[in-house]
Specification:
Elements: H1 2-14, H2 23-31, H3 33-48, H4 57-64, H5 69-76, E1 83-84, H6 99-111, E2 120-128, E3 131-139, E4 145-148, E5 153-155, H7 159-164, E6 166-167, H8 172-180, E7 183-194, E8 203-205, E9 215-218, E10 232-241, H9 246-249, H10 252-265, E11 274-287, H11 293-304, E12 310-312, H12 314-317, H13 324-339, E13 360-361
Parallel strand pairs: 2-6, 5-12
Antiparallel strand pairs: 1-13, 2-3, 3-4, 7-10, 7-11, 8-9, 9-10
The protein binds flavin-adenine dinucleotide.
Length: 370
Amino acid sequence: ESLRIVLSYLWAQLIPRPAPRNFADWVKGKFGARLFQIFFEGYTEKLWGIPCTEISADWAARRIKGLSLGEAIRKALGWNRGLVKSLIDQFQFPRLGSGQLYEKMQEFLLAEGQKVWLNTEVIALRHEGSRIVKLQLRNLQDGSETWVSPSHVISSIPLTVLVQSLQELPPPEVLQAARNLKFRNTVLVYLIVEGSQLFPDNWLYINDPTVQVGRVTNFANWSPAMLPNREQTPLCCEYWCNFGDPLWQAPEEQLLALAERELRQIGLLQGQKISGGFVVRLPRTYPIYTGSYKEDLAILRRYLGQFENLQLVGRYGSFKYNNQDHSLLMGLLAAENVLRPGSHDLWQVNSDSDYQEEIKVPPAPAKVRR
Ligand SMILES: Cc1cc2nc3c(=O)[nH]c(=O)nc-3n(C[C@H](O)[C@H](O)[C@H](O)COP(=O)(O)OP(=O)(O)OC[C@H]3O[C@@H](n4cnc5c(N)ncnc54)[C@H](O)[C@@H]3O)c2cc1C
């Protein structure tokens, strides 16, 4: 298999593809057809629900540009001094999970006398001239609604939802562009496994096309402080789907049974018992880079750009396939724009493919533990 991979890689290097037309072209050009098939194709098609030939090459450029077969082999042989970030095996992580970052921000805001409304949804944004003048809020616990007058709006509402929440509604071509942009949904199926040290990885990407599960996260290996005890391990199985798909509607018992069956099938679970589980459905988790998305996004950017006190941030808010770091960075830069208007162009964050995974990092200091 290794020989096949290397030969197919060399073939791809001998006959380079000048302008990859889609994701499949891009990956085959960079890694060879064999690696594309066994490492990228199954996972990618599960994630996006469309053939790799219909996914924009931009997506690959943004997400995996820094990784190369040469780097991976050098890493495996222990030859590289700096490391590509996607190949590191140590990193720092908040003890109780990444939510701690936001809890800390909340603490800081409250200490500064700011208000933070949780469980509150913005259901309408009223505009006048070039400003957003009022926001309609709905309390998700008691259903009560109020209006507030913001000086600035930094929105992480999914872009397509934001556009449809504007009062007055935008012109028809803008609404049509918003309807054209599509997100993919995630269904998280958590299984509580009776047992510990199931496997050493933080997460595993499941390329096997005979199962639907696309990624499995083992929280025990992120931070043991997140575990209730040492006898049980929570595993999270990720499934992706669209709103109309049966998976999105499937009852919880069915999803729990599916995840258990699939983990046994691929050997991540052997004899261990499952003592419980639950399902979390997350709508609009992945902006889909396909079709006319660039043109549609440009229409929305142009239209929303007229509002001087509105900034769009985050993966969903700006329809940008960010990770958490870039989403946080957009929020921080947006805050600086409030203090010093025009300091940063948020659209430039993570847009030049200068993605974290291609940055070389120095070897981790010895004191950083897993
Ligand atoms: C299962 C899973 C695993 C992931 N793992 C990683 C990982 O390991 N590393 C990594 O870097 N990234 C990871 N990501 C991606 C990361 O979570 C996102 O990129 C990041 O959270 C995006 O930040 P954001 O601010 O855009 O969105 P969010 O963090 O989702 O914040 C958006 C906020 O806006 C709020 N909101 C939306 N609409 C409204 C409204 N109308 N009114 C009021 N509030 C609203 C939401 O409630 C939410 O709090 C993962 C994502 C998922 C789903």
